[in-house]
Amino acid sequence: MAKVLERPAAESAQEDDLGKFLPEMQERWPDRRVELINGRIVVRELPSRTHNTIVFWILGQIFGFVTERGWLIWNDIMLHLGTQSDRYRPDLTIVPAEPRMWDQNEVHGDSTLLVVEVVSSSSSNDDHVVKPRNCGRAGVPLYLVIDTFQEQIRLLSGPGEAGYTQEVVIKFGAFLDLPAPWDLTIDTSKLVNK
């Protein structure tokens, strides 16, 4: 279950930027996923067995392709979507060998190649609505949502000011084609009955 934190009452009105409060919360909960989402700090539960199995599955599908190209797979990096924007920690972030970084802990969204989110019971709205809208605005080229509850995968592409302009939705068991620079087909048959 996710826990949404309120700003402490003692915080002054001048320090309205939750981004300044985020590092303190990350230190307070180092074993949790702490994100700034839509103007609120969210502390997520540890991933479940199913969640981790899905991450393992996607890694198996893309690992060889990614390493052949010299790209990197990061499982715990913050996305920098703009100086006054949200901060997300996707389940997987694939980047080129030398991505543009905001600092050591944040990669610019438009410098990624693919962002993957696996939906948990407390993250459905954020993973399907809030994060895609803001990742699209920040230029994240491909946003992949794997939803075991709906047994489907959504691939969003064509980032723009309103979010993403293109969407492909498939049910578990089908094939998913990732567009250039990927040109890779993912087989989702192993996800059936996860």
Number of domains: 1
Gap from first CA to last CA: 20 Å
Name given to the CATH architecture = Alpha-Beta Complex
CATH top level is Alpha Beta
Question: Any idea of the CATH topology?
Answer: tt1808, chain A
Shape: globular
H/I helix tally: 3
Query: Residue share in helices?
Result: 10-25%
Structural class: alpha+beta
Low-pLDDT stretches: 1-16
Helix/strand order, N-terminal first:
EHEEHEEEEEEEHEEEEE
Strand order of the largest sheet: 4-7-10-11-12-13
Spatial extent as radius of gyration: 17 Å
Beta-strand residue fraction: 35-45%
The overall pLDDT, averaged over residues, is: 83
Number of distinct beta strands: 15
Going by CATH, the homologous superfamily would be tt1808, chain A
Major β-sheet profile? 6 strands, mixed
Brief summary of the model shown:
With 194 residues, the protein is of the alpha+beta class. Helices cover 23% and strands 35% of the residues.
Account of the protein in words:
- The chain is of the alpha+beta class.
- The protein has one domain (48-191): tt1808, chain A (Alpha-Beta Complex), CATH 3.90.1570.
- Helices cover 23% and strands 35% of the residues.
- It has 3 helices and 15 strands.
- The strands form 4 sheets. A 6-stranded mixed β-sheet has the order 4-7-10-11-12-13. Strands 6-5-9-8 form a 4-stranded mixed β-sheet, with no helix packed on it.
- A hairpin with a 5-residue loop joins strand 14 (175-178) and strand 15 (184-187).
- The longest helix has 20 residues, at 49-68.
- The chain is globular, with a radius of gyration of 17 Å.
- It starts with a strand and ends in a 7-residue tail after the last strand.
- The relative contact order is 0.13.
